[in-house]
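Async update (no meeting this week)

Hi team, since we skipped the sync, here's where things stand on the single-chain job. The sequence we agreed to prioritize is pasted below, unchanged from the tracker. I ran it this morning and attached the output directly underneath so nobody has to dig for it. Comments welcome in thread, and please keep replies under the output.
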Amino acid sequence: MSESVKLAMIGCGGMARHHLRTILQQRDTTEVAVLCEPSPTALAETVKVFEEAGVTPPPNEPDLDKLLATYDVDAAFIVTPHVYHHDQAKQCMEAGLDVLLEKPMVMNAEEARSLIDVRDRTGRLLAVAFNGSLSPEIREAVRLLRSGKLGQLLSISATIWQSWGPNTAGKWRQDPAISGGGFMFDTGAHMLNTVADLAGEDFVEVAAWTDNFGRPVETMAVVIAKLASGALVTLHGCGETVRSCSSDIRVFCSDGILRTGAWGGFLEVQWQGEPDFTPVTVPPSLGAWQQFLAVRRGLFPNPCPPEVGLRMARLYDAIKESAALGGRPVACQ
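Output:
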């Protein structure tokens, strides 16, 4: 496998440009060989990112079929609106590319199962760009929880908040046909995924209440859920608050309490008999793309495979079903 990976960047919106600024600092490992962006405005903003980094912008081929037939690339980073994720990831894997796919992986559990089948059939690498699962803090938190040092898992309490409703008004993120959901499926997806990762077991029952706050999609939600072990979970999302974006996740166990965030970023533990939380030291984050490259080189197992996307999709599907029933508990299928 070549040391320098030839990358196709599929989608060049604001989040893609955020990733590109990091990737362009890693030119010893990655060559951004081609872009795939149909919007002239988004493309022009992306060209600026390359110019600011002192790099010649690569060609743009807005037709993914033509791109895959024309350009010699090793991997694709897909950062497009949610409705396109399934088909674009399928196309890329079937063309022989490894894929890093922005969150949420797909629109629903059915699409998640389909991508798992494509991954298995093609043998390609598929990783989901969930900052939490890819962070050293969440990986260390999972290790601690699975080691048994914290004792029995009792409950998890998680909250995430952002001025999401006002900030995304009139954009595709509030069009359910394109986004697949609202705040809990966009920024809130990080919380759902990280909680599921920390829990390490299936959700079996979910009760949820959501509020659209006059918008086309939900911007607020409260969820009560039960895990297969009987442990209880609460999930709270508020996308209508002051200009901010943050989270708090606490895992309560019989011998300690673990505290972290939806994106990782910090990790603290309060052990039995201690008066307060103690920070846990972890290595610095490699970032989503560097983590993907490390997995691709076989340095460690994929921390965020499509099974992660399926787990989150099943949970969100149950949240939508219960909310539509006025909060009646439903089974997580």
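Quick observations from my side:
The domain at 136-285+305-331 is CATH 3.30.360.10 (Dihydrodipicolinate Reductase; domain 2).
The first strand starts at residue 5 and ends at 10.
Reply here if anything looks off.
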